[in-house]
């Protein structure tokens, strides 16, 4: 497969476990965002065209009462922007790192997690064409996948998620505890998995400056693969049919 040199064009989505224990992780990403972007540039004199967003996700223990938040949208508005009849690409991504920091600071944590559901939504963001853009998803969680809400359902979609990552040409970075589910997810092509020493600690054992810097350097040094876009199935968990209910949306089962 032909490759092209890195052009400094990158789309990044931070896929965040926003369950009750994850406040330290979210704060760690916010405080070390500049270091990540500096490493992404690779050279102080090199400008990068980097668009950023996040997808923070949590739910009830049964996978219901879902909360999903991006920089500009949340709840039913986010579902409509991603999966509605009228596409809303302008609702996603920004080049303003301060806006991302403000958005992360305003996030609240709640309940349980369903990280494959969150990842599937992050993969459905409106990426720029992969022939000229590095597509990056950074997944951060402090719980093994197999301890997630609705794990039996999520597990049935694991192979489809891996296939989707690869067809989209997404570089997947996983930061989380030792987990058989994350080990399987890490089998995706060119995926990197940084294991934390603890579980349920908001990734407090992780040196975010170091880890995010390493991710940035990895993306900066990688090459783009010139490949045609592949059709992928969106909303693997039926997110496009979730129903609004006050501040949350009911679905995920």
TrEMBL record:
Domain spans labelled VWFA: 11-176
Domain of life, source organism: Bacteria
InterPro entries: VWF_A, vWFA_dom_sf
Name of protein: VWFA domain-containing protein
């Amino acid at each position: 497969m032909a490759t092209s040199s890195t052009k400094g064009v990158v789309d990044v989505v931070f896929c965040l476990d926003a369950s009750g224990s994850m406040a330290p992780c979210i704060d760690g990403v916010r405080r070390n965002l500049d270091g990540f972007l500096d490493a992404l540039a690779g050279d102080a004199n090199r400008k990068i065209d980097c668009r950023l967003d996040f997808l923070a996700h949590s739910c009830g223990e049964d996978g219901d009462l879902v909360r999903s938040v991006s920089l500009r949208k949340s709840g039913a508005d986010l579902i409509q922007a991603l999966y509605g009849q009228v596409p809303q690409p302008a609702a996603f991504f920004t080049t303003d790192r301060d806006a991302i920091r403000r958005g992360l600071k305003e996030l609240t944590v709640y309940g349980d997690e369903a990280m494959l559901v969150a990842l599937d939504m992050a993969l459905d963001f409106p990426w720029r064409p992969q022939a000229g853009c590095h597509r990056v998803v950074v997944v951060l969680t402090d719980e093994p996948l197999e301890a997630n809400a609705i794990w039996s359902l999520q597990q049935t979609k694991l192979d489809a998620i891996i296939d989707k990552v690869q067809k989209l040409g997404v570089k997947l970075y996983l930061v989380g505890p030792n987990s058989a589910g994350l080990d399987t997810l890490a089998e995706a092509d060119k995926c990197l998995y940084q294991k934390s020493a603890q579980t349920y600690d908001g990734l407090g054992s992780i040196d975010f400056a170091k880890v995010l810097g390493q991710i940035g350097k990895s993306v900066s040094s990688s090459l783009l693969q010139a490949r045609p876009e592949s059709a992928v199935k969106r909303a693997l968990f039926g997110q496009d049919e979730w129903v609004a209910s006050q501040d949350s949306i009911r679905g995920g089962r």
